[in-house]
Amino acid sequence: MLVILWDPDCLLHETVELLGSKLIPALESPARLDAILKALHITEHGFRVVQPSAIDNEARISRVLKSTSDTHNYNYLQHLQTVYEEWLSAGLIEKDGNVLPECFYLPTSTGKPMRPPKDVFARAGYFAFDMSSGIMSNSYRAIVASANLAHEGTDMLTGFGTKGGTDVDTVFALCRPPGHHCDGRRAGGYCYINNAALAVSTWRASNPKARVGILDIDFHHGNGTQEIFYSDSQVLYVSIHGADEFPYYTGAEDEKGTGDGEGMNINLPLKVGSPFEEYMLKLEYGLDRVHEFTPEFLVVSLGFDTFHADPLGHFQIHTEDYETIATRTRQKLKDIPSLILLEGGYVIEHLGANVLSFLKGWKSV
Ligand code: OKS
Ligand code: ZN
């Protein structure tokens, strides 16, 4: 059975971003989630659409802090929680303003270690790598709600396939903000907590030695997820993404993992403008690698910015193609408890149809 998980608090985060030298309302907006929910509610699809168990915000925060403790820097998480209020008290922003970093950490030859600057204005740039990760009054609440979906989704899958266990084999968590660009101590590309990494930690809490597969099929390379698991021998990260696109400095084929994790990072960059057939060749190859690894838990970082008309993506993928992508993924990785996490996708008018197409394929297998 497939369950769709969402949280109304994920709608609260609404920021501005710098795009083409202009400050605009961020493309990663609440309207994305609204569009998906609308499509799910008006269509007869037979999925269970549910909200997470009601816990108060403080309990939810401590749960998220606990399940990110081995992958995320504590000072970074504290910064996410407090920086808006700090900027407000310092008179750096008005109530409706956004914390936006301006000067970023600069690697030098001095041999000096990275240290957060004392100044609260400067600190925003220490904990971010771009200007697409603004923080407004409600951001932290939404960030935690989004991460909590990854946590609860993983919990719902634990025990699948065991005697007397759950019959839920797939959870699709409608996370927003997304996660795959966050590396555990830097926000960027609309991401603040790496939801995929949080899911892996949650799974490992009850299965410490489990093999986990992460399939990242957002248009953009998941630099954060790659970074977090780069030396991990039990986590296979496979990503198909636009070659030489955002986040620009990662995603090349020769990034294969290091130490015990050597060979456990597979980047499959695809030239922008590539037709769907070429995309599918990469997907089949990636799915075979995940299948060979025999993971006990699968995380899919799913972005709909691979759509042909997306303002931030440039593949030739159409609505009906998502059904094919999901069908082949499910066929090759059947019976693995799967957590699907929403990443990008910015064409609001087609987002609902694209999600439904993907779910139709997933369910058909
Ligand atoms: C410019 C936009 C930067 C692109 C961010 C890409 C976000 C995304 N401000 N990642 O998967 O969809
Ligand atoms: Zn993306």
UniProtKB/TrEMBL annotation:
Domain named Histone deacetylase: which ranges?
28-360
Pfam families in alphabetical order: Hist_deacetyl (PF00850)
Q: Does the keyword Zinc apply?
A: yes
Membrane-traversing stretches: none
What's in the keyword line of the UniProt record? Hydrolase, Metal-binding, Zinc
Q: Does the keyword Metal-binding apply?
A: yes
Co-factor requirement: Zn(2+)
The UniProt family comment states:
Belongs to the histone deacetylase family.
* Entries under PANTHER family matching the protein: HISTONE DEACETYLASE 8, HISTONE DEACETYLASE HDAC1-RELATED
Q: What is the protein named?
A: Histone deacetylase domain-containing protein
